[in-house]
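Researcher: Good morning. I'm working through a list of sequences from a screen, and I'd like to move beyond sequence-only analysis. For each chain I'm collecting a predicted structure so we can compare shapes side by side. This is the next one on the list. No need for commentary yet; just the structure.
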Amino acid sequence: MPSVMNKPSSRILLIDDMPSIHEDFRKVLTPNRASAALDEAEGMLFGTATAPREVFELDSASSGEEGLRLLRTANLEGRPYALAFVDMRMPAGWDGVRTIEELWREDADLQVVICTAYSDNPLENALGRLGSQDRLLVLKKPFDPIEVTQMARALVAKRRLACEAASHLAKLERVLREVQEASVELRRRNEELEVVAANVSQNLRSPMRAIGMLSTLLSQELRSHRGDKVAGYLEQLRDGARSGEQLVAGVLSLSDIAGADVVGESVDLTRMARELVAAQRQAHPQQQVSASVQDGLRTWGDSRLVREALGHLLDNAWKFTSRQKAAAITVGANTGAEGEQVFFVRDSGCGFDAARAASLFRKFQRLHDPALYPGGGVGLVSVGRIIERHGGQVWADSRPDQGTTVFFTLPSAVPR
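Model: Good morning. Structure tokens for this chain:
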């Protein structure tokens, strides 16, 4: 059964074989305009407010077949009927039940009132045959005008609300489809970018390694013949190759983060930080660092990704304190303004201008002379992506020569 939900309507269809019934309904549902004007004049004269009468648009048919033709025409014009009053027993043509069945085949949402003077088994059988009690009422003859008016108002309002609900639902479904289509397109483009990034990175990695190897071999071959200038050139060549390899590795890491599933689990951040600190000490035995990790740091997240993010933060802390004789690095947590746990990695290093902190975790950028502190900013972008994928936040507080503190939050549960 099709549904006709074009726009709200106050149109009513009356199907009855008796002309006198048509006239009675017309008097009740379509009062003449003179009466409405008199009501308005009375209110203005005596200062009494009267509720405006709801005037319906009433069409009449003397048989079920004629009523169906009117319904089809109304639907084609985009002006469907909200309600039909249908006589139960019409001697010629279809009876009330057949008429209602045909009407509902054309418009499944049409509200219907059966009009009958009988209360016998045929009526019960008819109701059982029609079934749809949510859009079907019975009106006993002789009619009470108030009852007819109340039925008309209630059922027309019901159809109007159903029409509005259907319209809103259609809009929501359209928006949902657009969002789904946009998500599919975004996913497709991300996959393409990941493939491009992986291919470019792989293609760059081999030349970078070759440059590094060749510069080493060249250095060995020229060891007994080179001068200081040649040695400087070779060292710059090796540094460039190392930086290129680090950048390629960072791009591959970002691609991996973008495509990785975030698997939530309990993470012992204290233990993880202490393991990473030990690894830094082993990698930089000449560097004097006083490192402390707060006890009892626990969170919820993907342990592999959280380890990578914390590793990048400690890498930076170690790097930017490398020119200090006695550096200090702290990993801890405090309570935020809304009661959330805020983790931090604090160092006593060279710091940077706080005005540049806003984009620190979103795009590659160098904050310091690469000759003093090598790196391309990939690590902090990776940190930003990891925290974002967990539904958390990351930010930094720093001043030149006064150290840096990076703060981050992780939710109590990982979003799907």
